[in-house]
Structures are given as C-alpha cells and as structure tokens.
C-alpha cells in the first residue's frame, strides 16, 4: 500500500500537477489509524493500550507432584475483589470438604494443591496477603505491582500437609489489605480466585501421611488478619492444650519483616548508625534476625529466614514481570517440638504456651524495628494412648554474634560486619501409649555473616549476606525432618540521586535459594530447590504528585531454577525478563506440564525491542521502593 501511494505521488509530480491535498489524504490516514484491534505481543510498560494482552507476572515455582492417572477434582474456594475498603478487611467464606467422588475420600487424599490466581489493572503498590484455613495460615503471598494494561499471576502450592484442616468445615480467610487512593493514583484492585485440586490416591501414589491435629498459632480473630504483628521482644504467645496421646509435633512458621523491617538484611548495626546523617534515613538494629519458637518460654528451635524481596523491593523494575523467589509463595520453616511432648502432656488438659518471637540486634529494646508478621501451626500426630517420657538433653547455648566495623576519617566510607552462629540439640525419650519407647532428637547448626559497605553518606550501599545451616530431627534414629539451606544474597543499591526533584535510583541484586527440605511425616515430601537470580534495574523519578513518582525505568532479571522431589520428579526453568517484558523462557523436566512456559504473546519481538529504544518507558506507578 505504501509503495502504491508513492507511485501515485510520482505520477502527480511528473505531470506537474499539485500535491494531493490534506483533504484527499485524510481518508488514508484515518484508515491507517483505524487498524483492526487485535491482541498483540506485549509492549513496554509505557502503554495504556487496552488491546494489549495483560502481562503475565511470575514467581517461578515447581508444580506439585500429583498421581498421574488417578481421579481428581477442582473446587473454587474463594473469589473476591480486594479494592477500596479491603484494608484489614479479609474475605471470609465457609469451607466444606469436597464430597464429589472424583475428589477421593475425605482426609485420604494423595495431594491437595491450591491455585491462587490474581488479576489487577491500574497502579498499585506491592501488597502483602495471607490465606488461612480454620485460622491457620496456609499461604503468605505478595502482589505484583500491576500495569495499566492488566497483570495476571498464577501460583500453585502443595498444601497436602494441611489435610487435617481440609477434612473439616471451617472459615477460609484471605487478607489482601489494599488501598485505593485516587489522590495518589492508586487504583489497582486485586481480583482473586483460589481453586483447590484434590487428588485421590492411586496404587503408585498412596494417600499422604500427615498430621491428624493442627493447632493454629494465630490470633484466631474471625474478622481480622490472623497473623500476629509483633514489634517487641516478648513475641506472640498462643495458649495450647496438647492432646495427651501426641507422639509427634512440629511447628510450621510463617514470618516476614514489614515497614522498617522489610529490608532487615540491609539494616545498619546501631553501633554505626551515628556515622550517617539523619537525612539518609539509614535504618538501625542491624541486619541479623532470628525467629524463635519457644515452648513454655524455652527455645525449642529457631528460623533464620530467607529474605523474600517483594515486587516493589529495592528497585521495583527489577521484578516486573519476573519476581524474586518467594514473592508469591513465601517459604515456611519447621521446628520439631516432639522432644517437648513429655512436658506438654504431663498433666491432662493443662495450658502451655507456644511463642513466636523475633530477635534482632538493637542495642536497646526492642531489638528490632516495627514490625514482623508471624504465625504458624502445630502439626500433631496422635497415638493410641497417653504419652509420657522425659527430656534427656537441653543443650541450647546462647546465640554467638559479633559486630565489627570501621569508618574513614570523614565518614565517607563505613563498613560493618556481623557474624553469627547458633547450634542447639534437644533430646527426649518418649514412652508411647503402647509402652514403646522413642528417642526424639532435634538439632540445628546455623551460620550467618553480613558485610555491608557504604559510601556517599549511606546513599550507596553494598550488602553481602550468607545464611547457611542444617536443621535435623530424628525419631528413634530415623530422619523425620531435614532442612539444609544456603541463601546467599548480595545487594548493591544506589540512591545517590534519590533526594533530587528529578532523581533516580538503581540496584543490582544477586540472590540464591538452595534448599533441601524433607518435611515431616512423609519422606517422599522431600524437595530440593536451587534458584539463582540476578537482577538489575534503574528507576527515574519526578516529585509529582507530592510523592516521588517513577517516570520511566529499566530492569533486567535472569533466573535459573532447578527442582527435584522425593519421587524423582523434576522441574527446570531458565527464564529472563527485561524492561517489563519476557525475553526467554525454557521449561523442562517431568513436571513441566504442571507449570508450562509462557504463551508466545508474552514475548517481545526484535522489532519491539527497537521500538523500546526510541520510545522511553514510562511507568505510572508511585514506586518508592526501598
Ligand atoms: C490457575 O488458575 C488460573 C485461573 O483460573 C488458570 O488460568 C490457570 O491455568 C491455573 N493454573 C493451573 C496450573 O492450574
Ligand atoms: C474484577 O473485579 C471487578 C469487581 O468485582 C469486576 O468488575 C471485573 O470485571 C473483574 N475483572 C476480571 C478480569 O475478573
Ligand atoms: C563521623 O561520625 C561520628 C559518629 O557519629 C561523628 O562523631 C563524627 O563527627 C563524624 N565525622 C565527620 C567528619 O562527620
Ligand atoms: C480434657 O478436656 C476435654 C475437652 O475439654 C474433655 O472432654 C476431657 O474430659 C478432659 N479430660 C480431663 C481428664 O479432664
Ligand atoms: C552479581 O553477580 C555477577 C556475576 O557473578 C557479578 O558480576 C556482580 O558483580 C554481582 N553483583 C552483586 C551486587 O554482587
Ligand atoms: C549511582 O548512580 C548515579 C546515577 O545513575 C551514577 O551517576 C553513579 O555513578 C552511581 N554510583 C555508583 C557507585 O555506581
Ligand atoms: C528517563 O527519563 C529521564 C529524564 O527525562 C532520562 O534522563 C532517562 O534517560 C530516561 N530513561 C530511560 C530508560 O528512558
């Protein structure tokens, strides 16, 4: 068409007749403008074009292993829109166990998995959310920062170990505290659908062995978010009455830092805070955090959490559309409290306490900043009669922790180093209802180091952290829980121009999650994950409308993900995203179909990459980051 038009022009010129008038060309221009609306491949975040397919945002996850040829059923558990007024107002719906025969016998499922699917269009911060069944938290999730053309994210999680809760009716609660504020341009609501898939057992995939009783460690509120928001050194205390026939008991812990604790691993030791001017906004209380599980005020075990970076974290453009590992399904942690059973059941129907506490490095209390969200549940297996016994070893030395550091004469550079080590070993002899004896042993051996370097009054920071360790529980010599992990994290963040009216900030983050986790009750529920991520991004800002506001951004994230479970099922994914679009996605392994590659419409063509360079990206988000 274009060449034909040129031909006509040439013809007009050679005959010396005047150029076509604007009026003559108007129908052509209008015709071009009126191109048919069809779904195109993704274009950058600059676009407001509603014909563009919604962006698929993703936290890479391995889908659960499920029986290959058995029966299964899917049930929609919850559909809810979290918009204006949803802050601190969870959706609560009744849950009842599925009765359809394809689902399998209640409580005798091979697997239970949840699919949490969210759609959002507009502008919104990353918001934290949590799902609870009968007041036990079963999923902690954070949101994408959506786009003007819509963003979708789907995550599937194995929740088989909550079978005891899924076997009885109870409230299903989802908190997704969102704020709609037109004056801040925050208009993104979250449309959520949660479906559950129940798989009946087969010959080769029998019913899962799970706890038979689950006690929530939560505030039990019927209407408010059930996790505890804590900011003191006392922690969150739950009174529990243990079944006298308990023979195994494990605490699963959910925990995340919030507000001044969101980036706890970049916080500065109090000893060095005074080296920075107040204007830099350096946060104190140091980078080390320990989440403790206490039974009747005695430490039963600890968690040194993996740092989940949310989609608005440090530099938001790093995480769109590929998030940091854990953003949509935060890891949880296990402590075997079986060695405490003799103390918990010594007198029937007496109340004991289980406490979730966070310990930081603050020189004066509280030891950490406000606040942490903690919750969990106790997964108990009961036997045939009353259990007794005694604790035979309680070897829980103090946490070893040392902080060092230094400054140059002018405070132009500051460095700090925090090193911590914790080991513990708790053993008991349990006498079961049938007279059988079991020696229960729980041990942990954990190491931590964090080296931070600051220049430019703290506006530029390098933080290099290593968290490694092994948690091990054996019952009568048999391994019942193992968590061996290595979470290196390295963050370079540059806020040197942040305070300027038209400023910018940027970061580079390397984060690895290597973890072999054998969950309690069922050795086949063993999962080994190796996720390696590298992300870098740059956000430019103006100061309108009163808040620093992102005007454009770049971001590039790559991830290599590998997974194998106790059944030998595998999942591998190599994925890369750049400037709000997908660049590469290769998926293989036996579980590939459970979480397949992104559809072709999510990828940008070479042509579109060239377009990007000509047209600067604009974000519409009030991204503050950090
Ligand atoms: C999860 O649910 C969403 C929305 O219902 C659906 O599009 C997606 O395919 C589901 N994913 C899986 C793995 O079932
Ligand atoms: C999201 O929820 C709103 C309000 O319920 C509804 O109007 C809209 O159609 C929903 N969007 C999608 C894509 O489900
Ligand atoms: C460096 O920080 C220390 C600790 O606050 C302070 O005493 C000292 O005056 C600072 N030096 C300079 C040159 O700012
Ligand atoms: C313990 O409490 C349960 C439930 O309240 C009650 O059924 C049981 O009789 C009590 N047992 C004893 C020994 O008090
Ligand atoms: C991240 O890893 C890359 C490749 O090893 C390295 O070049 C880069 O310096 C690292 N960045 C940070 C912030 O550690
Ligand atoms: C920090 O960012 C600014 C603005 O992009 C840049 O000029 C400066 O070189 C960066 N500093 C470092 C240490 O990378
Ligand atoms: C973003 O905008 C700023 C200010 O106009 C400009 O300096 C910068 O180069 C832009 N960045 C991109 C990626 O377009």
TrEMBL record:
Asked if the record carries the keyword Signal, the reply is: yes
Indicate the secretion signal residues. Answer: 1-18
Keywords of the record: Signal
> Which InterPro entries does the record associate with it?
PNGase_A (IPR021102), PNGaseA_N (IPR056948)
Q: Which residues form the Peptide N-acetyl-beta-D-glucosaminyl asparaginase amidase A N-terminal domain?
A: 64-394
Short name of any one Pfam family annotated for the protein: PNGaseA
The answer on whether this UniProt entry bears the keyword Disulfide bond reads no
Q: What is this protein called?
A: Peptide-n4-(N-acetyl-beta-glucosaminyl)asparagine amidase a
The species this protein was found in: Mycena indigotica
């Amino acid at each position: 068409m274009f060449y034909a038009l040129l031909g006509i022009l040439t013809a007009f010129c050679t005959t010396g007749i005047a150029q076509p008038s604007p009026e003559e060309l108007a129908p052509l221009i209008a015709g071009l403008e009126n191109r048919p609306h069809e779904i195109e491949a993704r274009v950058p975040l600059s676009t407001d074009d509603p014909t563009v397919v919604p962006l698929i945002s993703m936290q890479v996850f391995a889908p659960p292993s499920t029986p290959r040829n058995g029966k299964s059923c899917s049930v929609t558990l919850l559909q809810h829109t979290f918009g204006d007024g949803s802050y601190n107002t969870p959706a609560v719906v009744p849950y009842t166990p599925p009765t359809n025969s394809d689902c399998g016998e209640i409580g005798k499922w091979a697997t239970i998995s949840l699919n949490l699917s969210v759609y959002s269009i507009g502008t919104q911060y990353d918001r934290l959310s949590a799902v609870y069944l009968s007041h036990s938290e079963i999923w902690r999730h954070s949101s994408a920062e959506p786009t003007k053309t819509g963003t979708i994210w789907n995550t599937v999680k194995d929740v088989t170990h909550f079978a005891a809760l899924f076997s009885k009716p109870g409230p299903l609660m989802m908190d997704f505290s969102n704020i709609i504020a037109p004056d801040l341009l925050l208009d993104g609501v979250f449309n959520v659908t949660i479906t559950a898939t129940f798989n009946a057992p087969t010959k080769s995939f029998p019913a899962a062995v799970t706890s038979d009783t689950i006690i929530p460690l939560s505030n039990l509120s019927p209407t408010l978010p059930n996790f505890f928001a804590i900011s003191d050194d006392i922690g969150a205390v739950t009174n529990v009455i243990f079944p006298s026939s308990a023979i195994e008991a494990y605490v699963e812990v959910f925990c995340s830092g919030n507000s001044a604790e969101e980036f706890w691993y970049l916080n500065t030791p109090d000893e060095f805070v005074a080296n920075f001017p107040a204007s830099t906004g350096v946060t104190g209380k140091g980078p080390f955090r320990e989440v403790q599980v206490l039974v009747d005020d005695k430490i039963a075990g600890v968690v040194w959490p993996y740092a989940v970076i949310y989609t608005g974290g440090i530099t938001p453009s790093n995480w769109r559309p590929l998030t940091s590992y854990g953003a949509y399904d935060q890891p949880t942690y296990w402590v075997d409290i079986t060695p405490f059973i003799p103390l918990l059941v010594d007198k029937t129907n007496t109340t004991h306490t289980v406490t979730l506490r966070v310990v930081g490095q603050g020189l004066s209390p509280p030891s950490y900043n406000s606040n942490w969200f903690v919750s969990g549940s106790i997964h108990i297996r009961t036997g045939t009669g009353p259990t007794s016994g005694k604790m035979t070893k309680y070897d829980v030395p103090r946490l070893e922790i040392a902080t060092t550091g230094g400054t140059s004469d002018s405070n132009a550079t500051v460095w700090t180093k925090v090193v911590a080590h914790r080991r513990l070993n708790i053993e008991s002899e349990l006498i079961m209802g049938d007279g059988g004896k079991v020696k229960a042993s729980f041990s942990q051996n954990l190491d931590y180091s964090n080296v931070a370097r600051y220049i430019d009054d703290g506006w530029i920071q390098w933080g290099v952290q290593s968290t490694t360790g092994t948690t091990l529980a054996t019952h009568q010599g048999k391994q019942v829980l193992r968590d061996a992990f290595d979470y290196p994290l390295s963050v370079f963040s540059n806020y040197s121009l942040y305070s300027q009216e038209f400023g910018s900030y940027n970061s580079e983050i390397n984060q690895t999650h290597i973890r072999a986790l054998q969950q309690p009750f069922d050795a086949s529920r063993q999962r080994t994950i190796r996720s390696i991520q590298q992300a870098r991004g740059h956000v430019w800002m103006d100061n309108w409308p009163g808040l620093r506001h992102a005007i454009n951004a770049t971001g590039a994230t790559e991830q290599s993900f590998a997974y194998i479970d106790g059944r030998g099922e595998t999942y591998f994914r190599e994925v890369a995203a750049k400037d709000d679009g997908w660049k590469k996605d290769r998926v293989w392994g036996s579980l590939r179909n459970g979480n397949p590659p992104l559809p072709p419409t999510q990828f940008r063509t070479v042509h579109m990459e060239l377009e990007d360079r000509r047209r600067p990206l604009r974000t519409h988000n009030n991204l503050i980051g950090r």
